[in-house]
Amino acid sequence: MNQLTNIMKKIAILAVLAILVSACINRSAVRSFERFGSGEPYDAIIVPGVPFENGEWSEVMKMRVHWAVHLYKNGTAKNIIFSGSAVYSPYVESRIMALYAAQLGVDKAHIYTEERAEHSSENLYYSYRIAKDNNLNKIALATDPFQGSFLRGFAMKIKLNDIGFLPIIFDTLGTIDLSTPMIDPKTAFVEDFQAITERENGFVRFQGTMGKYIEYKEEDDPKLKRKK
């Protein structure tokens, strides 16, 4: 009986901690949005990819796409750059997300796909380059607060100082119709696919996440920036 009581106490403590952490994350997201979400609309928002598996989008992909569509429809962003290659499944993540966004009402002329990135740091940088190369100069990252926190630190590390951060506010997301439109994923399918887990070990993937393999344009190279 005592053992059961102790287990229940631990579960209760963990539940309270989870609620507190969630509340802190949401407050942090609200503060970030208040800082970066005012003023003129962003020329583009960057949305990192998520694997598309078993013919369905995950809850994470769903909330990222719906948040991006929300920012587009309310005038916060003029364009959306979805980022991600075929990494863990044979579907190009950015194309899948673009298909969903188009079905949710985003004009295809305002959707860009970045199809090279295999890690979140690459999602950020390669999408940043697509924006700059298309004269989309006011740019923000729009993703969940967990990933956004890491990528905000990474952006500071590589001195991308002109990126805003519009993390998902879960209270706002809860007011949105999170429906699942029908798409045809065939156009995002990659033949002869090999998952990243078959090509790279865990350490190499970790280095990729930390941005080790990014091919920078000379003007963005953080090593050259530090010398100036």
TrEMBL record:
Pfam families: DUF218. GO terms for cellular component: plasma membrane. It comes from the Bacteria. Coiled coil: none annotated. Residues 43-148 form the DUF218 domain. PANTHER family: DUF218 DOMAIN-CONTAINING PROTEIN, INNER MEMBRANE PROTEIN, PROBABLE PERMEASE. This is DUF218 domain-containing protein. It comes from uncultured Aureispira sp.
